[in-house]
Amino acid sequence: MSLDSAQLNRLFPFFVIADADLNIVELGDKLKEICGNKVGESIFDYFTDLHFDEDVKDGVLKNSWITLKQQPVRLNGKWEKIAAQNLLFFAGYGQSFLDEIQRAEPGPGLNPDNSNNNSAQRQLFSVTEYSYHQVIENMRIGLVELDLAGHIVYANSSFCEICGYDLIGIKGKLLSELWAGRIFSEGGDALGYDNITSKVSEIQFLDTKGERKWWLACSSLSFNHEHEQIGSLLINFEITYHKEQKLELMAAKSEAEKAVSSKDMFLANMSHEIRTPMNAIITMANQLAKTNPTVEQDYCVQTIQTASKNLLVIINDILDLSKIEAGKVNLESIGLDISKVLREVIQVIKHKAEKKGLIIDYFQPHHDEIAPVLIGDPYRISQIVLNLLSNAVKFTDKGSVSLKLSLLENFDDAQEIEITVKDTGIGMQPEFVKRLFDNFSQEYESVSRRYGGTGLGMSISKKLVAQMGGYFNIKSEKGKGSEISFVIRLMKGVGEDLPVEEKLVLSDDLFSGKRILIVDDNEMNRLVASTVLLNYGCQIMIAENGQMAIDMVDKDDFDLILMDIQMPVLNGYDTTKLLRKGGFKGPIIALTASAIIGEREKCIAAGMDDYIAKPIKEDLFITVIDKWMVKGAVETVQPEIEVPLYSLDGLYVISKGREDFVTKMIQMFCDQMPSAVSDLNQALENADLPKISTLAHKLKSTIDHLGIVSIQRVIRDIESLSDENAPVSELIPLIAQVKRVIDQVVSDLQTEITRRNQDLAD
User: Fold this and answer.
1) Residue 324 has what pLDDT?
2) Strands 334-336, 142-147: parallel, antiparallel or unpaired by DSSP?
3) 8-state DSSP, 400
4) pLDDT digit string (tens) for 707-723?
5) Which secondary structure element, helix H or strand E, spans residue 529, and what is its range?
6) Locate the Response regulatory domain: which residues (predicted)?
7) Which of 148, 278, 564, 762 is the most buried (most CB within 10 A)?
8) Is residue 622 over pLDDT 70?
9) Contact predicate 507/491, CB 8 Å
10) What does the alpha-carbon distance between residue 291 and residue 298 come to, in Å, rounded to a whole number?
11) 264 pLDDT more than 60
């Protein structure tokens, strides 16, 4: 520790230094003004409340105070043992006045009746200065004061606590001795004290235990009263807890995203693997039913059809739930006749109810109460009502099931309606009603075994009703039955809002003279599609993969192509793109077992005209094909998307948001890329294909980092063509394109650098 008197007076204006015999060695200037120069005299003659203890003698700083005998003033500070000089040091940094009860008797050097004298003495002690030192010492922000040579002259408690040091151990040392190999940038790069500027930055620090801490830190110059620089200050604020929380949240988010991705992949694979054999089962069962089977054979066919349809319901439930939870279900907004929609649902369920001997009724309001046309999603409303009716029929062994449509409120432009399903079935316990809408919810395991089902129907229904802006009402009593309804508000429409239904007349020669190419690697799927289509008079050709399809289209003409997606050699997306690029204008319809979120959009984006999910529903299958046979392929016009020339997003990811790093990388790009492109042109002039390949490979990563999308594919083509010893003539336009784009990017980035420098100057 430095005992320079001027420095001590600046930092600790009320300091006291005593020797081993507790005689005063030195006093702060302000104390001298009160006590006089008492060097050599006993400390006990002038001070009380000295609070010596073993901790102080062991060199540990303790918050303490001493009291002046000559006036009722307490000096606040810390005791410290200076072992090297065998001295005791009281770091007095401020004072406070004792209240009337605590004041000591005035000493002989002070007249208690002299109020002017009292006031003068009080002025020697600045309450503001005391408060300042108290704040510095006790604030939760670390502070270190350095002299001009970089030696530590003071560190507050927070800094010592954060770093694990004590003031005695670090006072007088260079800060670089403490921080050597211990501080790092946010990105993990080693730093020195010089790297910490007046700009607040995030740094990492290893404390004395080697534990990583996170700080917000900055530095500034320190001046005396004459405005002369006397050193510098380092200020730091610990954010370790918040940083760890942030990192944990980021890790949790990453894991959640991986889980969602894995779930989507699982659903895609499950859908594909199950729908492929189901496609064959359902379609072949339907074809078999057309062959005038015997009564016994017809019974077997119906059993196959029923079982396969039940399995399809389960798969669709799982996929529906996934879509709804992901917010990817888009509700239709078209005209509908709600009474007709409900009558059609009743017709679907009526057969099941009658087989169980149940009475099924449909009650609707007076014919003029419900608007003839409402706007909504008839398919989803049917799905919800069908689920409610199916459950009612399933859980009712005797009695009745009814469907009721009610008008709750009539507005000028909308109607609020309630659709109610009531049964005399087994009913529900109140506890189960509370969790009726939970995923996979069944009241008892025995219920699941007896009645079957996934327990997803009500969960899906509630989410769909909520998406429509509606809600459910439930009444149920165990052993007596249930009454479940949902309320939705639908806008009123007009007759023109109702979709026009075009009924396709199916005939054996519907596709007579037409040539259809089926592209699918699965023999079962090819057989199913061929069997259905051959009934309508068309000629069928088969391709087992995308490449085979391209070869066949080059040699023959086809009126329509049915395209599978997941195939070896060349998948459906890439096959379609190549067919369109090669000039094929006919309809291409996706025929795939993948029915997950976004699949249709991906197919259309690849250049296909329509999408059919397996298993095939024959009427829909033939209707879609006929539509495109009549219409012909509409040439896919890809929307013109403005792709930016470059993007700095990749640099920000690499630099973790550091603007200085990004600016440096931009400058490097502008400095190095023109010469790199020049080298590429020189290698082209020399027909040096190996060098062209090497240069293209180096340029590839730089182009990727800057997101120069327009030449990402081009630079890879240059590399691969060079490796394949392609003719130089093929490389000339590609390298010219790269040069043209790079020149433009460099020009734009130089403007960007100028702007950044201007912002920094401002």
Assistant:
1) 64
2) unpaired
3) E
4) 787 787 788 778 877 87
5) helix 523-534
6) 515-629
7) 564
8) yes
9) no
10) 10
11) yes
**pLDDT averaged over every residue in the chain:** 78
Pairing of strands 481-492, 588-592: unpaired
Are 192 and 172 in contact by the 8 Å Cβ rule? The answer is no
Residue 124: DSSP 8-state: T
- Give the Cα separation of 506 and 535 in Å (integer): 10
Between the alpha carbon of residue 6 and those of residues 2, 15, 26, 151, 227, the distances in Å are 11, 12, 12, 16, 16
How far, in Å, CA of 593 to CA of 269, rounded? 9
Is residue 558 within 8 Å of residue 540, measured between CB atoms? Answer: no
Helix axes 523-534, 240-289, angle to 10 degrees: 50
Average pLDDT over residues 435-448: 59
pTM of the model: 0.43
**Residue with structure tokens 């500027």?**
197
CB under 8 Å, gap of 24 or more: what pairs does 139-142 form? 140/237, 140/238, 141/235, 141/236, 141/237, 142/215, 142/234, 142/235, 142/236, 142/237, 142/238
Of 725, 746, 737, 747, whose CA–CA distance to 681 is shortest? Answer: 737
Backbone angles phi, psi at 92, to 5 degrees: -85, 115
State the DSSP H helix or E strand holding residue 383, giving kind and residue range, or none if neither.
helix 378-394
Nearest residue to 198 (alpha-carbon basis) of 175, 182, 216, 183? 216
User: What domains lie within the chain, and their CATH numbers?
Assistant: 5-90 (3.30.450.260), 126-245 (3.30.450.20), 330-492 (3.30.565.10), 515-630 (3.40.50.2300), 648-760 (1.20.120.160)
Spatial CB neighbours of 697, under 8 Å, sequence gap ≥ 6: 719
End-to-end CA distance of the chain: 43
Q: Is the pLDDT of residue 156 over 70?
A: yes
What is the Rg, in whole angstroms, of the alpha carbon atoms belonging to the chain? Answer: 42
Secondary structure class of 490 (helix, strand, coil): strand
SS3 of residue 639 by DSSP: coil
Give the C-alpha separation, 510 to 537, whole Å.
Answer: 6
* Other beta carbons within 10 Å of 590: 25
For the chain, how many residues are written?
762
Strands 414-423 and 334-336: unpaired
Strand order from edge to edge, sheet including 610-613: 539-543, 515-519, 560-563, 588-592, 610-613
Confidence of residue 277 (pLDDT cuts 50, 70, 90): confident
| CA–CA distance, 65 with 77 (Å, rounded to integer) | 6
Which two three-digit tokens encode residue 622?
């033939």
Instruction: Kindly state the tokens that stand for 351.
Output: 């057969």
> Nearest CA to 52 among 676, 499, 60, 278?
60
Question: Is beta strand 515-519 parallel, antiparallel or unpaired with respect to 539-543?
Answer: parallel
- Which of 335, 326, 648 is closest to 497 using CA atoms? 335
CB 696 within 8 A of CB 722: yes
pLDDT of residue 586: 92
DSSP output for 719-731: HHHHHTT--HHHH
Secondary structure of residue 644 in the 3-state scheme: coil
CB distance 630 to 609 below 8 Å: no
Which of 171, 123, 117 lies closest to 144, judged by CA? 171
What whole-number distance in Å separates Cα of residue 27 and Cα of residue 17? 6
Q: What is the pLDDT of residues 127-153, one digit of tens each?
A: 444 445 555 666 668 888 888 888 888
DSSP E strands: which ranges in 129-168?
Answer: 142-147, 152-155
Q: Which two tokens stand for residue 547?
A: 């490449």
Contacts of 407 (CB under 8 A, 6+ apart): 365, 369, 370, 415, 416, 417
- Residue carrying the six token digits 């010219």: 736
pLDDT per residue as tens digits for the range 473-484: 999 999 899 999
Residue 668 clears pLDDT 90, i.e. is over it: no
- CA–CA dist 217, 66 (Å, integer): 35
